[in-house]
């Protein structure tokens, strides 16, 4: 059952991305390399929320009533976060840069479709798996199960874990500081245009003339 829920939770955002790519292709919008980032932005946080509240209400015997309670508890937060994320990327769709505009449009569509698939695909799977659960069994979140994740959690909240986290953060900031100090500020205008752009040819010509002028002086 756990394997099935995990697969469905991961499949929902992937299905949303695939549907988004298909819809854009259907309307004749070309695929670009920036869209490869879309699957990593369509997360599974909504699936985790659904699963957490589903187990939290395990004392409700009726699956329909249990799902109604879950949707009432987290439905508004899922809707608001999905809507704001989609609108944030939707604003980027009006960018004058075509590649960035298409990327934002694709991601906004994928985030909204992920919200739809979480409610229409993952939520029904929770109902289907309820038949394998023991009736009226309350999930005990406070039970100390000695697993790898439990030991890891105890280490994180311990004094040594917090001290280690502080040391790692300090090392990251120190490394970042010295790395920035060694960076050289250079700008090559020719790299901002496609290789076949006429502007790139003109920039190459200007560079040749500029080099000749410097050699003269």
UniProtKB/TrEMBL annotation:
Compartments, record wording: Membrane
Transmembrane segments: 100-128, 160-180
Lineage of producing organism: Eukaryota, Metazoa, Ecdysozoa, Nematoda, Chromadorea
InterPro entries with a match to the protein in the record: Patched_domain-protein, PTHD_SSD, SSD
Record flagged with keyword Nucleus: no
Alphabetically ordered keywords of this record: Glycoprotein, Membrane, Transmembrane, Transmembrane helix
GO cellular component labels: cytoplasmic vesicle membrane; plasma membrane
Taxonomic superkingdom: Eukaryota
Pfam families tied to this protein: Patched
Protein name, per record: SSD domain-containing protein
Domain SSD intervals: 1-128
Bilayer topology term: Multi-pass membrane protein
